[in-house]
Amino acid sequence: MLHHIKNKVYHIEILPPKQDSQKLEADLELFAQKYNRVMESGYCACITDNAMGHLSFQGTEMIEELGLEVRPEQVMIHLNTFHTLEDLHNILDTCKSKGIKYLLVVSGDGSERLPKLQPSDVGAEGKVESVTSVELLKYIESKYPGTFTMGVAFNPYEPPEHEFEKLKRKLDAGASFIITQPIIEKNKIVDELLEKYPDIPVIVEAWMSRKLHLLSEAVGYEIPENTQYDPIETLKSIHKLYPQCGVYLALLGFKTQYHLIKDIWV
Amino acid sequence: MKIVVCIKQVPATNEAKIDPETKRIIREGLNSILNPFDTYAIEEGVRIREKFGGEVIAISMGPEKAIEVLREALSLGVDKAILLSDKEFAGSDTWATSYALAKAIEKIGDVDLVICGKQAIDGDTAQVGPGIAAHLGWVQATYVMKVEDIQDGSIKVRRMREDGYDICEMNFPAVITVLKDINTPRIPSLKRRLAARQAQIPVWKPADIGADTDKIGLDGSPTRVVKTAPPPAKKNVAKRIEGTPKECAEALVRELRMRSII
Computed from CA positions of residues A14, A19, A24, A28, in that sequence, does the dihedral angle turn out positive or negative? Predict the structure, then answer.
């Protein structure tokens, strides 16, 4: 992951089509276009896993079904705890066979329709009430030792003491890089994170939508709907504020913004 | 084994309005989904096939648009799908619907097991499964929470009661209706979803299944909806949990689990 930061490789989030898509073929084509564009740019495509609990296709099956090329340094798969054990292994086996090495392991957002890994599935029966990213990390490391480079999420808007304690457990469980929730300015908790873990690669998330108010839930306070926000200017300032960090771009507009990011990270 | 799963397309929203004249749901303009309880019926059928072999056939009665839920069933693993659709079927109540489905099951032939969700979320009657069993003259078990065993020619199931459960052993052919406790439905793969979009789904009309047209549609439906009204609003009751923070947290988790919220 340090290689990504040194070589200014953006992490670009791509959402797979939803299961209930009414225009699936068109959505698949669009996904392939975005993925290939990220590959050609030399960036890293980060494919979400049922983001916000919405039923979507898995990144691994998109890659397989669409015959997309995997460049190991340029693909990251999000993986959460809302799977059956069989599906989890299918995903991990596909990642292994395709040479995908980066995983972002998160607890994730569930929904009525999504199954959930049980403690007994991952050898944590009697130890925990429910499977979180910590148990998932441990399980993956035990079943696929040394196969994957796994990252975890860090939320600077949660109570810091609790969040740092959680992060320590994630790192102890096998995580080797960190991706933060979106930041739009200097953040003292992220500063603390960088001080505390100077040797662990940290990737800060930049919010690329103009609709800043959508971040209200993540940051824990109400951002007015009419708030003016310039994502590109914010991205520039994040590079200045955190030159030692990688950057993850969420909700990047492929038509309107992609061409603008090329020369920003200098 | 030959298994038939009966499924229904229902409005996706609980904001459906009732036609004051007909007292029926106004379906126009509403998004539709596969009845959630039917997802568990499909999954159970597919699991039984995976364990014992055979085939699973999904059938549904409804307008042409109902073909969407049959494609959903195919993406979830059933082998074939059949739609019963014709203007003669329109307006069927649960009795006429179960008659038509029973005739389709007869036409499919050699069916060992029919699986339905416990009820559809639009009508909430839970009558179609038992109605199919009655029309076919087959044994049935409703509210099934677990298939305990399948042996040569028989099935043993656990069915939920308010005060416990029954273990029922039935000879095939049989009808069961299932609860959501029975399994965790799989998520369709992209490969299956794409194949389902291309699948040919036959449409059967009353003549195809040998249905007596006096027994289907509005004329064949004995139900008369005289009045509909919302149920009385539930009174919210707050429960106070006291104790140390640890005790409170444990008690809260226990309460939430008892309500299946977590």
Answer: positive
